[in-house]
Amino acid sequence: MILARVMLIMCVAATALWPRAASGQDPFKALELIKPARTRAANDFTVASPAGKQVRLGDHRGKVVFLNFWATWCRPCLEEIPAMEWLYQRYRDKGFTVIAISVDSDIVAVPPFIKQSQLTFPIGHDPKMALAARYEVRALPSSFLIDRKGNLVALAIGPRAWDTKPAYAVIETLLNSR
Question: What is the distance in angstroms between the CA of the first residue and the CA of the last residue of the chain?
């Protein structure tokens, strides 16, 4: 319960970090994405979906993966999810996918939200935050961009405007790099 409160405070505080993109700027910088200091493979995982199926990172090898940690009680998370769906719809046929991992302790709120928001990308559930801990998630939302080789290439702590030109440029850059 204390962890949930801390995450909520961090979630609300992250709203203040919403990036302000300058035109002509490097899209990674425009979105204030953090690039790792060294190349590191993304932690593979398997988690259950709200429907009881398995969501596996390994099933998406060879694709650019947008991995997002969120919760239904996190207002900034809910505000950025529609843009994630638009990004997924725009690039899914080009080798891109979104995997959203709910850290809600109780799964009950997740399926109605998925239905109401008409989300079509894979969604997993991490109620004990074991996967979030492996990814060192410290605030919600947190998003990780993984290249086609399975390497972590960027991290966003807090919400981002994923339906903007800089976001499209970042995804297109990753899709076009081999």
Answer: 43
